[in-house]
Amino acid sequence: MFSMISVLVADDDYEDRELLKLEIQRALCALDPDIRFAEAVSVRKAKQFLTTSIFDLMTLDIEFDA
């Protein structure tokens, strides 16, 4: 059905990012997709990804830099 799904996981906590990736893989396993993850640990990095790439799915849970 789907050949590749591009996912942006933006979270400043490593364990949260890993948990989100596992949950996404589990939720989409029936589709048997090729999931490509991009990880951002800051707003700046998330903005870089968003200006250069297109994502099918995004999770955004990072604090804005002061």
Description:
With 66 residues, the protein is of the alpha/beta class. The chain has helices at 14-28, 43-52, and strands at 4-11, 34-40, 57-61. The chain has a 3-stranded parallel β-sheet with strand order 2-1-3. The radius of gyration is 12 Å and the shape is flat. The N and C termini lie far apart (43 Å). The mean pLDDT is 89.
Topology:
Layout: E1 4-11, H1 14-28, E2 34-40, H2 43-52, E3 57-61
Parallel strand pairs: 1-2, 1-3
Descriptive tags:
3 strands; alpha/beta; 2 helices
Radius of gyration over all CA atoms, rounded: 12 Å
Which class best fits the helix and strand makeup?
alpha/beta
Q: Whole-number average pLDDT?
A: 89
Strand content: 25-35%
Taking strands numbered 1, 2, ... along the chain, how are they ordered across the largest sheet?
A: 2-1-3
- What spatial form do the alpha-carbon principal axes imply? flat
Number of helices: 2
List low-confidence stretches: none
Reading the helices and strands in chain order gives EHEHE
The largest sheet, given as strand count, sense and whether it forms a barrel, is:
3 strands, parallel
Number of extended strands? 3
| Termini Cα gap | 43 Å
Helix content: 25-40%
